[in-house]
Design goal:
Layout lengths: L1 H15 L12 E4 L4 E4 L4 E3 L1 H19 L5 H18 L1
Antiparallel strand pairs: 1-2, 2-3
Length: 91
């Protein structure tokens, strides 16, 4: 994991000229990929892999319904953003 973080920081530095990105201690939450658990610092809750999978399904279903309605396309975009953020987190 350290090699990955070093690579990310090296890429960040090469693109921005800044020394390093924020480290994990600056994050509001921590995702443990080996267990699939999200530890939320905001309210000190643990979200399981099953809960995260249900959230993904909910975001997908809601996005499809809202995006089909021309009056709700903007609201659908918020669900799409949340869905993509979850996917990025667990990737």
């Amino acid at each position: 994991m350290a090699d990955r973080n070093e690579l990310i920081n090296a890429l960040y530095q090469s693109f921005t000229g800044k020394d390093a990105m924020k480290d994990d201690s600056d994050s509001g939450s921590i995702y443990n990929a080996s267990t699939g658990t999200l530890y939320c610092k905001f309210d000190n809750k643990e979200l399981t892999k099953l809960q995260i999978d249900h959230a993904i399904k909910y975001m997908e279903d809601t996005y499809i319904v809202l995006n089909a309605n021309p009056l709700m396309v903007e609201k659908a975009a918020y669900y799409r953003i949340a869905l993509e953020a979850i996917r990025l987190m667990i990737a």
